Amino acid sequence: MGRLFIQSLPGPKIFICKCCKVHSASRDDVLSKEFQGRFGRAYLFRTVVNISLGPNEERHLMSGLHIVNDIYCSSCQQILGWRYEKAYEESEKYKEGKYILEKERMLKEG
Amino acid sequence: MGGAEYYEQESSPKRRKTLRIMEDTPVLLGSQGLIKRHEFVRIIIQCLNSLGYKKSASCLELESGISYKSSEFDMLESQILNGNCNHKAWVDIIDKIKDLKEETRASALFLIYKQYIFECLYNGDDSMALKILQDHISALSVGREKVHKLASGIISLKDIGVGKKDDSTFDELRRKLLSELEMLLPPPIAVPEKRLEHLVEMALTSQMDSCIYHNSSDNISLYEDHCCSSDQIPTKTVQILTHHNNEVWFVQFSNSGEYLASSSSDCTAIIWKVLEDGKMTLKHTLHSQKPVSFVAWSPNDTMLLTCGNGEVLKLWDVETGICKHTFGEQSPIVSSCAWFPDSEQLVCGSSHPENCIYMWDLDGKELKAWKGARIPKVLDLAVTPDGEHLISILSENDIRIVNLKTNDERVIKEKHAITSLSVSGDSKRLIVNLNSQEIHMWDIAGPLKQPWKYTGHKQGKYVIRSCFGGSNCQFIASGSENSQVCFCCLVFFLVLFCSFWYCFAFAALLSKVNSKFKLQRFFCRLHVYIWNQRSKEPIQVLSGHSMTVNCVSWNPKRPQMLASASDDQTIRIWGSSRSQKKV
């Protein structure tokens, strides 16, 4: 489908997609390591690359009601995590616009 | 003008008397009362004179009572041209003019004194000439350079020997002095030359500037306000080319506009010929081992380079379709390449086996190679058609512009990832497509402050390319991607099919939703977007492709022909609705 635009990240320490090995996020962008995803541990990132967004969904997470978009690796379409679109509680507002990547779907490089 | 009486321009008893005679003729003209009658008539007289209609010009002066030459200038002219040597009188006239800027006064006096000096020299009166130089000219505040040049001119004249001393030379020189003074003195003493033509062209330029579809250099008439309709730009599909067997990733017209090259993931590149009537026929199919994502025409259009996406750089001959050369001993994978204007050298960027920029000549000899750890990954490359700048897109959203003559380097940092680069035909501007669904246009030579931004198209996952186009590179066209809304409309249609007897209700709902969200547009049509450089929003959207439009190219010699390449395996040629009628 067209020529996929794959970004590559600088810096030695990056996370890559387990299936297709494209770069997903840089370790410098980790905001927190204390999150829980569908498959276990998950990290909160400031920014990620090479992903496509799914539609908005309302979901009840452990931290409350949120609007999230699932994120998929743009080259292999694996679901990697989600993005916080909107948080209903004040204490959760800091997550808006940030990304969760599941540790189980990632590999560390560097 | 002979001995006809002339009237003064400034308000005076004589003028007021004349005005009372012509009482019913208004002083201010124009629908907004902005035009002063006597100024208007004066520039008309100037225009008639410059067109060669001297009789009409003097007729007009008599009839209107307005004289072209101001009283001061008239006095100056009669004094200068009457052949006497009363230079002091000339200086007096200049001194008497009120409201003259010091600079202008000094320059005018300088010219007069210069003439005085030369006439003294011609008459053999050297001491007088020197005296003027010392007393008057040095007192004027003109630049030292001018004075030195004059002094050296005097000396050289003495050396040559002022032999030819006759009246015709005097006359010539004096006329020259008069015309120089006319250009120097400000209005209302003298009118700037070709004033009426200048005003008319200003109005025409402003009309052309506000015309968003303007696409040709003819078509301007003085009889009507200029405004082009959208039949100046491509709006309809003229031809669909289906020869490729897989996604078409790249199209580009040759520099002469006679050929079109396209490349596809079916591992071929095709050269098409543009026929007289605008239709395309297949000329050659060039076969490669791997999908080709980039082609580059040589500036003389005799050769084509193909590369990209896992394929090495190959050189093809356009006439025969034979591969003349494959570059690089280690067969590096080249992502994009560019020619230098002499069609003898080329530059390309590679990222396998290592990040590198190569410069080769046509025989495959490596002229330069930039390798090493510090070389970043080059995503796209271009050389401006005038050969002055080499522009490259480096991996961290950087646009690097190198001036090839001075080796000056400038880097523009974008906030979002850049997917492609394109340079305008006049070498002045470049555009980049960004991941954030914007196209940014930057001036290559000028100060790099803020880019012009264009939005309206969709881009997210794929490499989408754009290009400049139009008779003067005033348009920008870009491809675009699928949008997410597609899913919703599919669901609607599924439900529609399943519950047929609810169709009326659903049809009503669907048409309501359709008009609200313009779903029809998203459902089966992908677009090519066209912007005018001055408009942030698209001025035209071309629909027809059914999948992502990867690349567009505007024919440089036919400003109404556009080609687009899409994942639906077709290339569409677009033309204006005018060209449709012809065919």
TrEMBL record, chain A:
A GO molecular-function annotation: metal ion binding
Keyword Zinc among UniProt keywords: yes
This protein's UniProt keywords: Metal-binding, Zinc
Short name of any one Pfam family annotated for the protein: Yippee-Mis18
Presence of the UniProt keyword Zinc in the record: yes
Signal peptide from the UniProt entry: none
Residue ranges occupied by any Yippee domain in the UniProt entry: 13-110
Residue ranges crossing the lipid bilayer per the database entry: none
Cross-referenced InterPro entries: Yippee, Yippee/Mis18/Cereblon, Yippee_fam
Family listed: Belongs to the yippee family.
The protein's name: Protein yippee-like
Annotated source species: Tetracentron sinense
TrEMBL record, chain B:
All copies of domain Translation initiation factor beta propellor-like, residue ranges: 277-368
UniProt repeat feature WD, residue ranges: 241-274, 285-326, 542-583
Sequence intervals crossing the membrane: 490-511
Entries under SMART domains matching the protein: LisH, WD40
Pfam family name, one: WD40
Sorted UniProt keywords: Membrane, Repeat, Transmembrane, Transmembrane helix, WD repeat
Origin superkingdom: Eukaryota
Signal peptide: none
UniProt-listed CDD domains: WD40
PANTHER family: WD REPEAT PROTEIN 26-RELATED (PTHR22838), WD REPEAT-CONTAINING PROTEIN WDS HOMOLOG (PTHR22838:SF23)
The protein, known as: Translation initiation factor beta propellor-like domain-containing protein
Organism, as annotated: Tetracentron sinense
Organismal lineage: Eukaryota, Viridiplantae, Streptophyta, Embryophyta, Tracheophyta
